[in-house]
């Protein structure tokens, strides 16, 4: 599971600028799910922060994220690396699979410093 405090500390250490966030929590998709989708890797959303940017864009717990800005990712660390450079106000295109159907959802990122409720795991994407 993703560690919010580690991400927040490492993101701020790397850049003094604000870090964008979508308001999602995730785990690695199972090998069976990845094989069924025919993708190199996927993340399964476990949480979507109510009223956060991802919620506003229509992401739901149970969605599988398969691409970020049109590119696949090798593993969770690769996904996290790509997400860590995104800033508030940027639009990020997430390729998802929901109930077996692939689509793309665009999320306009919020400002990480505005996150008040740390009870929901959120990442810098």
Helix-strand sequence: HEEHEHEHEEE
Strand composition percent? 25-35%
Tell me the quaternary state.
single chain
Q: Give the number of helices.
A: 4
Give the CATH architecture.
Roll
Shape: globular
Q: Look at the helices and sheets and give the structural class.
A: alpha+beta
Average pLDDT level: 84
According to CATH, the homologous superfamily is: PDZ domain
CATH class: Mainly Beta
Describe what you observe in this structure:
The protein has 125 residues and is of the alpha+beta class. The protein has one domain (4-114): Pdz3 Domain (Roll), CATH 2.30.42. Helix content is 26%, strand content 29%. It contains four helices and seven strands, in the order αββαβαβαβββ. It has helices at 4-14, 31-37, 53-57, 76-84; strands spanning 20-21, 24-28, 43-48, 64-68, 91-98, 101-108, 110-111. The strands form two sheets. A five-stranded antiparallel β-sheet has the order 2-3-4-5-6. Strands 1-7 form a two-stranded antiparallel sheet. A hairpin with a 2-residue loop joins β5 and β6. The radius of gyration is 13 Å and the shape is globular. The relative contact order is 0.27.
């Amino acid at each position: 599971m993703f560690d919010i405090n580690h991400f927040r500390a490492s993101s701020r250490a790397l850049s003094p600028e604000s870090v964008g966030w979508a308001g999602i929590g995730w785990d690695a998709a199972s090998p069976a799910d990845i094989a069924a989708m025919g993708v190199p890797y996927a993340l399964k959303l476990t949480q979507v922060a109510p009223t956060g940017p991802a919620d506003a864009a229509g992401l739901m717990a149970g969605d599988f994220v398969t691409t970020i800005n049109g590119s696949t990712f090798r593993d969770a660390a690769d996904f996290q690396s790509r997400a860590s450079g995104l800033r508030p106000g940027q639009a990020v295109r997430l390729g998802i699979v929901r109930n077996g159907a692939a689509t793309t959802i665009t999320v306009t990122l919020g400002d990480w410093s505005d996150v008040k409720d740390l009870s929901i795991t959120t990442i810098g994407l």
